[in-house]
Design a protein that fits this description.
Layout (H helix, E strand, L loop, with lengths): L5 E8 L8 E9 L4 E5 L9 H11 L8 E7 L11 H11 L6 H5 L2 E3 L2 E2 L5 E2 L4 H10 L4 E5 L3 H4 L6 E5 L2 H8 L6 E2 L22 H13 L3 E4 L6 H8 L8 H12 L13 E2 L7 H5 E2 L4 E2 L1 H4 L4 E5 L6 H5 L2 H6 L1 E6 L2 E6 L3 E6 L18 H8 L4 H5 L3 E4 L16 H17 L6 H12 L5 H17 L7 H19 L1
Parallel strand pairs: 3-4, 5-8, 8-9, 11-18, 11-19, 12-15, 15-18
Antiparallel strand pairs: 1-2, 2-4, 6-7, 9-10, 13-14, 16-17
Helix pairs in contact: 1-2, 4-9, 7-16, 7-18, 16-18, 17-19, 18-19
């Protein structure tokens, strides 16, 4: 580089990927005819960044340098998208042009991200949490980011954060006139769930118990019954009894949310997603440009609740097969491939027919046999085969249950937490005799080997739920009833 050229570099990150490879922003200012270039596979908003930066620098009282400005985003062979490079490019230009002090920039490794408006305000950007997580692995503990992204940084104790609203605030931090804040260890108590309580559910004791089993074992579940029987209410109550989760899983899940919604704080509880049945395949599975996670990934570690299951688009439903089996979704497009974790628990609800009253004792069904069959055929056999628990739900007469006291969610939550811990540390043993009984019984049901494996897992969950060290006959019978017989009756 010639002596008359000025060079500086700043560390940033690519917000268009979950795995967020670090990006080095290099600035070269050379004398000559004014020419402004961004290289390194810039896309969309990145190509426009210098136009925003020029106006922002002038608005903040700085000078946009004369001459040729070249911005390189390294590594140059990966696509760069989004507006998160605005702030590091602007600060790099000021540093290369000697308009600001570079002592702190050179003495400490900074991760810098942020979008600039034309009046030099700093706007929040997507993908900050995965960027910080990646930077932490490289022992980089100082960041400058938009004030709106501060909640994402609070998940990292010991991190030095400059949360700024304006370009000048970022300059003040880098020049040492303002100190960045240091994130302490979080001591807040997780907020209570706003889900309805199981104590409000009347007369559905068996179904409530089955939902608690599903929560404890992480089993996929399908509820089928007429309108008004309480399917949606009971599933919403399930949100309040989901077991606790590890910090590593919470970080991974929050990173996915960070790609869709800037400023997302660390998720204290497992996510509970309820997409409407009009959601597209891309909205459910992920897609767009750049590729973004869909509902199956936003439910990672938690529950994906699909109400009115047959009303969802067939293509979207069929796309659930691989995530349910593998715990991840791989999106392949012409402009790249992205893999998002999608280890979720599927809970679905549906009516038995279009009018909703097939098999109802108190109201006559108006559907023909053909309509009922076509309605059920909207859900393919392979998808149903991946659902462990098939539970019929019937309407109840509340007057017959006035003298009964339903178990509140707090009590169920304790049992669920205890069961999940037992399954993870000392799962109940399935003896050879019970295994033979299982095989002989399910052979008459004509179910697949995947279903047999699901019933086996379910039997261990039932045993752990009852605090037993081994799977007994009654545990096995309950698992077969919920995982096998109900499946066959529903198909009929």
């Amino acid at each position: 580089m010639s002596a008359s050229s000025r060079y500086f570099r700043i560390q940033s990150a690519n917000p268009s990927s979950l795995h967020v490879p670090g990006v080095t922003v290099e600035i070269v200012i050379s004398p000559g005819i004014p020419r402004h270039t961004v290289v390194g596979l810039p896309q969309g908003a990145v190509r426009e960044s210098l136009d925003r930066i020029r106006a922002a620098l002038v608005s903040a009282g700085y000078t946009f340098p004369r001459g040729a400005i070249t911005v390189n985003l390294a590594p140059a062979d990966t696509r760069k998208d989004g507006s998160a490079f605005d702030l590091p490019i602007a600060l790099g230009i000021l540093a290369a042009d000697a308009q600001i002090s570079t002592r702190l920039l050179r003495s400490r490794a900074w991760l810098i991200m942020g979008e600039l408006t034309l009046d030099a305000r700093v706007q929040p950007v997507e993908g900050v949490m995965p960027a910080i997580l990646d930077a932490n692995k490289q022992h980089l503990n100082s960041v400058i980011l938009p004030r709106g992204n501060l909640p994402e940084a609070t998940a990292f104790p010991g991190l030095h954060v400059g949360a700024v609203r304006h370009l000048r605030e970022a300059v003040e931090i880098l020049e040492g006139t303002v100190d960045p804040i240091t994130i302490g260890v979080a001591s807040e108590i997780p907020p209570l769930s706003e889900a309805p309580d199981f104590s409000t559910v009347i007369g559905q004791d068996n179904c409530v118990r089955t939902l608690a089993l599903a929560a404890a074992g992480g089993h996929n579940m399908l509820l089928s019954g007429p309108p008004g029987c309480g399917k949606t209410l009971m599933v919403r109550c399930m949100e309040g009894i989901l077991p606790s989760w590890s910090r590593s899983l919470a970080l991974e899940a929050t990173c996915l949310h960070s790609l869709r919604k800037p400023g997302t704080a660390l998720l204290e509880r497992r996510p509970f997603r309820r997409p409407h049945h009009s959601v597209s395949a891309a909205g459910l599975l992920g897609g767009g440009t750049p590729l973004r996670p869909g509902e199956v990934s936003l439910a990672h570690g938690g529950v994906l609740f699909l109400d009115e299951l047959p009303e969802f688009h067939p293509g979207a439903l069929e796309g659930l097969r691989e995530p349910l089996e593998e715990g991840k979704v791989t999106l392949s497009r012409a402009h790249g491939v992205e893999e998002f974790p999608s280890d979720f628990q599927l809970i679905a609800a549906m009516n038995p027919c279009p009018c909703g009253y097939a098999g109802s004792p108190d109201r006559r069904c108006s559907c023909t046999d053909r309509r009922r069959k076509l309605y059920r055929a909207r859900i393919s056999g392979p998808l149903l085969d991946r659902i462990d628990m098939h539970v019929p739900v019937m309407r109840v007469d509340p007057l017959r249950h006035l003298d009964r006291s339903p178990i509140p969610s707090s009590d169920w939550a304790v049992r669920v937490e205890t069961t999940r811990h037992r399954l993870g540390t000392a799962p109940p043993v399935l003896e050879k005799e019970e295994e033979e009984t299982l095989i002989k019984t399910v052979a008459s049901l004509g179910v697949s080997m995947r279903t047999v494996a699901g019933i086996r897992r379910l039997a261990r969950t039932v045993a752990a739920f009852e605090q037993a060290d081994r799977v007994q006959r009654d545990h096995l019978a309950e698992a077969i009833r919920v995982g096998g017989q109900s499946r066959r009756e529903g198909a009929g």
